Amino acid sequence: MLTAIVQTTNKVQDELAEEMGAEYVEVSTHLGARTRNKYMKHDYEAHDEWQGKVYKIHGSDNKYPNLVEKTGYGEITGLGGVNCRHIKWPVFPGISVPRKDFVDKKANDKAYELSQKQRAFETKIRGYKREIEIGKISQDINKVNKYNSKLQNTFAEYDQFCKDNNLTRDYNRERIFNVASKEEKANYTR
Predict the structure, then answer these.
(1) How confident is the model at residue 102, as a pLDDT?
(2) Distances in Å between the alpha carbon of 24 and those of 20, 63, 67, 93?
(3) Residue of 32, 80, 99, 190 with fewest CB within 10 Å of its CB?
(4) Which helix (H) or strand (E) holds 54?
C-alpha cells in the first residue's frame, strides 16, 4: 500500500515537472532511510546517501547529478521502489527555497537498525501464527502448544525490545490472513 501511494505521488510530480518545464527535483528526507550494507548491488540502494538533495531530471551538470543514475528512480530498490517512502517535487534552483530537513547520519543509522529488528520480530510472529493455524487445521495439538509457547515468548521479547528502545508496536504488521473456510474453522475451534 505504502509503495503504491509513493509511486503514485512521484508519478504525479513527474507530470507536474513536465507541465512546469522544470528540469530539477528535490527529494524528501526521513529518519530511518535505508543504509548501505554488504548485500547491495548498486550505490543507489543506500537511500540515506541521496535523500534531501536536488537532482537534474535529464542529464546532469557540475552541481546536480542525474536523478535516475544517483537515486535509481524507477528501479525496485531505488527512489519510489519497494518500501521506499521518499517523494520528489519539481524545483527551480536559484528561485525555489530548498527544504532544510537535515537527518543526522548516526540517528538515521540507529533508526534504520531498529526498524529492521522490528521487521524481524514481526516476521517471526507471523511465522509462528501460521504454524499455529496449520496445527489447528491438522488437529495437531502438540504443534499448536509448541508454537503458542514460542509465540508468547516472542511477544514478551518484542514488548521488552519496544520498551527499551521507545518504539511502538504496529499490530497490523503481525497479522496473518486465514484462508480456511467457515466449516474448517468450525472444526478446529471446538
Answers:
(1) 79
(2) 11, 11, 8, 8
(3) 190
(4) strand 54-56
CA distances from 54 to 23, 30, 68 (A): 10, 15, 12
Give the count of beta carbons closer than 10 Å to the beta carbon of residue 174. Answer: 19
For position 190, what pLDDT does the model report?
A: 43
Least confident of 55-64, 106-115, 178-187: 178-187
Using CA atoms, how far residue 148 sits from 4, 96, 135, 137, 187, in Å, is 34, 56, 10, 15, 19
Work out whether strand 88-91 and strand 24-27 pair parallel, antiparallel, or are unpaired: antiparallel
d(CA 168, CA 159): 9
Phi, psi for 158 (deg, rounded to 5): -65, -40
The answer to pTM > 0.85 is no
Parallel, antiparallel, or unpaired: how do β-strands 54-56 and 24-27 relate? antiparallel
